[in-house]
Each structure stands twice: as C-alpha cells, then as structure tokens.
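Look over both lines:
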Amino acid sequence: MAEPGANELRLDARIAELLPLRRTPAGVPIAACGLAHESKQDEGGIARDVSVELQAVAVGELASVLAGASPGMRIRATGFLAAKSLRSRTPVLHLSKIEFLEGNENGFQAQVEVQEKG
C-alpha cells in the first residue's frame, strides 16, 4: 500500500456545471460539478494567463450544500485529487470544504466544511 503523503488542492473557481444530487445504494448523497478557473499566475517572473476546467465531487453532508448552489457561483474549493476510476486516470477533485465567494452583493456568503465523524 502507498505511503500517506500530501494531496490537497485549493482552487478559486466558478461552478460551470452542476449535476443533479444522487444517492449511492446505501443512501449517501453525492453531488458532482464542473469547475472553471481563470487567473494570472507568476511563472519564472513572467505573468501567465491560466485557465483550467476540473470535475469535482462532494459526498455526504457537503453534497447537499453543493447541490444547493447554482451554476455561475464562485467558490473556493478545497479537497484532494483522485483518479475518476480504475479505467480512467483523469483527476477528480474530491471536496472537503466549500467557501462561497459571492459576497454580500448577491445576499449570499457562506463557508462550509464537513468534518469526518470518527
């Protein structure tokens, strides 16, 4: 088995696509979305325009929070990367924390983090 190591990603992004909330056979809620990020980053002293799209998934209580969002909302997403499946090695962000960045201008501002129970 692999040794534990650092695997945390924090990304400010816009919810580009939001799939309907679904449940596993055991009844655990799952929400999936597409995230779109655009920014300017410094690379070797040179400003670079960066854009990326990434699939993300939230499980359990956090899935209900994500399902209540709307496409176009800006969030700060924190979680870990894992392969989509054994057959598809495409990375998917598994969310552990969502911070809504909309601010007060839209009347909605929240930060949600779900702790594992154990």
In short: The longest strand covers residues 29-43. The chain is about 5% helix and 55% strand. Residues 61-67 form the longest helix (7 residues). The two ends are 22 Å apart (CA to CA).
